[in-house]
Amino acid sequence: MAFPKQVRLVEMSPRDGLQNEPGPVIATAIKTGLIDRLADCGLTHIEAASFVSPKWVPQMGDAAEVMAGIHRKPGVCYSALTPNLKGFENALAAGVDEVAVFGAASESFTRKNINCSIAESLERFAPVVEAARNHGIPVRGYVSTVMGCPYEGDIAPAKVAEVARALYDMGCHEISLGDTIGVGTPLKAKRMLDAVAAHVPVEKLAAHFHDTYGQALANLYAVLEDGVAVIDASVAGLGGCPYAKGASGNVATEDVLYLLNGLGINTGVDLNKLVATGHWICQQLGRHNGSKVGQALGGNCQ
Amino acid sequence: MAFPKQVRLVEMSPRDGLQNEPGPVIATAIKTGLIDRLADCGLTHIEAASFVSPKWVPQMGDAAEVMAGIHRKPGVCYSALTPNLKGFENALAAGVDEVAVFGAASESFTRKNINCSIAESLERFAPVVEAARNHGIPVRGYVSTVMGCPYEGDIAPAKVAEVARALYDMGCHEISLGDTIGVGTPLKAKRMLDAVAAHVPVEKLAAHFHDTYGQALANLYAVLEDGVAVIDASVAGLGGCPYAKGASGNVATEDVLYLLNGLGINTGVDLNKLVATGHWICQQLGRHNGSKVGQALGGNCQ
């Protein structure tokens, strides 16, 4: 076993969390309040928004206002999803520190989601990555459905490796491997990771595991054993699962942090403040707190 | 890594689950319906009741009626908690296959729970174990608070080992190690297990991990790596945490089974039937289904 000494948590709640929240569009002030609180917890990488057409994702329609409204904390990377060149230009104008493109390892998922093949999706990302390079903006690459697809079931680790490598070769500085529907288990996670790490250095990989079947922490523990040192998570488990009503999506950042603290792995994030932030955003949204640590510690910590 | 090929799941819901349910006393027919359904899922070890004074645990007041009402399936071990000799005699009369005594690794917890020292608690168990031996009834020994105590915090692994060994030497055939408040993390679980396994053979140990902080599956994965092959769990996560309102207690059997299936470990338990049983009991009790697998699969599986 070779656990990393330090893990960087990449906070997903303002983007991957809120974009999946049902109900009315969330006020910009709540989004900026969440992002500022997350930075105050010690998180150094926060995916703040998605620069995507509001027709597709109404919840993210105020991305520029969100970026303008936050109090930027030195040392924090505020990133945003930018599916195309127009999104990239808007994100650049809004002053994001990093952009991200979002691919998948499943042909069916790619087809259903963005109506093209994986190869075509990669072609669409290329100009975004190139424009970002020209502006000195790092690009994060997401690969979703790495341990299973809602349409075609199992995904071959070699396919995940192929897409991850294509994004890495294109210029993405970090590849986030998403178990979008949370169907993975630890040995599957290790096999998938091993396949990818044969093509992309493990220090360039992030684990983005959803907790739909309750397996996320076990899977994270398994890939931490293999040296993964970047983990995506969402405070209070914000963001449900679009493929199973009432089920969990993102693993809760509080629960991941509790695990890492227990393993003696440093993150620089304050658990009490994070739990309080989870309770705060759940109160604002009138939703259940999806973090077990949050539930266990109640509203007592400040 | 040396995962076991086969794991025995010990189903806790009829006892450790239901005894913690708030609200009115649950009808005997619901309890027997649950137990019969669990046996039909393929579970071979079900803790069916607690033969304890109804003054202490009103929810378990019908233990004898439960034992009389179930349809006993050949090959299934129906066990019961028997804190004292009177409880043992009643359990024997009711025809249980196995009895269990319940100790703790924390002096403060023992004092608060049963108003005596650990040493005194072991003295109280001795006549139960002896009587069981005389009747050829195997005895399971529980050790609670193995990774932390609500009153004194950390518990030394050596203390857990001492109590586990005392129960084993007394004649308990299996020792179930309980993280009663769910505060453990994987390396802590491994250290605790290693300390105990130096005194009691690992094949005589069971992991009874609560999911209060969401760590149970990661902890189970960690001790499976070390050869633990008996796991206690409760369908639908039945039984909350008496130490944190609204928090989780027992890890859900469905979620454990999903993990084990993913690791290729055989249990003989049918996941779809188990999920259906979880939904059934939650409907009967009007409570939330605490299994993430249950939530993800909804009520669709039969």
TrEMBL record, chains A, B:
InterPro entries: Aldolase_TIM, HMG_CoA_lyase_AS, HMGL, PYR_CT. Its EC number is 4.1.3.4. The keyword Metal-binding applies. Pathway: Metabolic intermediate metabolism; (S)-3-hydroxy-3-methylglutaryl-CoA degradation; acetoacetate from (S)-3-hydroxy-3-methylglutaryl-CoA: step 1/1. It catalyses: (3S)-3-hydroxy-3-methylglutaryl-CoA = acetoacetate + acetyl-CoA. It comes from the Bacteria. Residues 7-275 form the Pyruvate carboxyltransferase domain. Keywords: Lyase, Metal-binding. GO terms for molecular function: hydroxymethylglutaryl-CoA lyase activity; metal ion binding. Belongs to the HMG-CoA lyase family. This is hydroxymethylglutaryl-CoA lyase. It comes from Marinobacter lutaoensis.
